[in-house]
Amino acid sequence: MGMTMAEKIIAGAAGKESCKAGDIETVTLDRLMSNDGTTHLTIDMYNNLKNPHIADVDKLVWIVDHNIPADSPKTAASQKKMRDFAREHGIRFYEGEGVCHQIMMENHVRPGELIFGADSHTCAYGALGAFGTGVGCTDYLYAMVTGTSWLLVPETIRFNLNGKLNEGVYARDLILTIIGRISANGANYKAMEFAGPGLATLTMADRISICNLCVEAGAKTALMEVDDIALEYLKAHGREPKAIFKSDEDANFAQVIDVDLSEIKPIVAKPHFVDNIVDAKECQDVKIDEAFLGSCNNGRLEDLRVGARIIKGKKVAEGVRFLVVPASRAVYKEALKEGILDTFMEAGAMVMNPNCSVCWGACQGVIGQGEVLISTGTRNFKGRAGHKDSFVYLASAATVTASAIKGTIATADMV
Amino acid sequence: MSESFTAKIWVLGDDIDTDIILPTEYLAYKEINDMKPYAFSPLRPDLASKIQPGDMIVAGRNFGCGSSREQAPEVVKALGVSCVVAKSYARIFFRNAINNGLLLIENQELYDQVKEGDIAKVTPGKSIEVNGKTYEIASLPDNLMEILNAGGLVKAMRKRNGLD
User: What residues in A contact B15, CB-CB < 8 Å?
Assistant: First the structure.
């Protein structure tokens, strides 16, 4: 019996020839990412161990992105703790340079690696053929101290992508459609693998956006086959693959799902569940108070270009706040050079520094009671973006920008 | 962990996410005890004050979906919840709960059969008895039981290394 990509990566990390779904393996991690959401808790636990040490400090990457710059004495204290510890132990440390997953994609992730991130959207790294999975701070601490952890080898749902997305339809619409189809726990404990001829039509930005959101279907990880587009991205960022894996033809998949990209339409996920999807046009009566273009899901240059093309020469609707948040400093600088940020500001948008922003309901742009946000963020849970009685709709960069112009939920062809 | 206990049931629904279990704005609080009053507040603002140590939670599918914030299972544990019984769990929450010594039980039937306030007798790894009916429950794998019995992963590590 052949092996899936996920099985091959885990077998390698366990120092074995093979493994299969359902096995529990002890694995050595290639990289360990943590951000300011929980690192302070990891440090407290670390300091509580007797004679603690870090197994391999070169594998650690710590990134302050959730609350940067600090917005209260509480967050300042937790970030100071993180900064001081990183300095003392020589941990690779980023602050103010971008959202953690974007930094990891730009600077660290390599195909074939097994990566723990103390953040649920770590599954984004599958866009480069790496097995990224989210863990809590205790699992993170264990891996940081021992260099290892245990993993249940996941079953794989394979998505065969065919065709091409139509003009005005984006990767975000595709992944929301898939989550809607399989439901918010449709891939629980499983790997979601994407392959097929349609993959070649998707940019790296598209691929990151797709893999990033797979945790919203419960997935343990997302994986994409590594092709020339991925290798080019890697090379442009000065890195080489660790190993390139593909699922064998006779690999055992829990499910194989064919997806015709040409059938995907602009989609909106309505409150309060990511799988609560409808055709975006069905929401055109929904009035919005705020729009957010950014996050680890859609804050890349390609997303900002889409938004800028739509809003150029137009204005943000009266009474609407429009937050534009590039995912990293590199994205910000490039967008500045291309005049994209000028376009947004002339239209009346607020352009913020790279951070997680309102996607996680802290830091900035938090919404009040009864307010409606349309967002390229990752989640629309009850209270996610602020007051418990507020409403978050998730959509593509195009739909979010069009809605900011119109003041009600709209697709790009409506403005 | 195999000793029986009785517990009063609180019933929650499907897809109870980590932002409901503990909203973002309270994550920066210094101590887990400071976060306790806000557990489940977007859904049921008064629930945290009503839960008594030893009570249990029964829920539907996908309990704990969402964020990897470990404060979520920590705060449930801190409220004194003896166990959670759900149809299924999101995987990050599942690991985090075990790592914090919070007992999770997967059961397909219970959620549809009980109501809030019912009293159940729970025998971990064996059964749950409630309203005159007995529901069999599976035991967790040995490596997870070792962690649970120690009260969490850090405590299990300390024990394994002979520190406690």
Answer: 184-185, 273
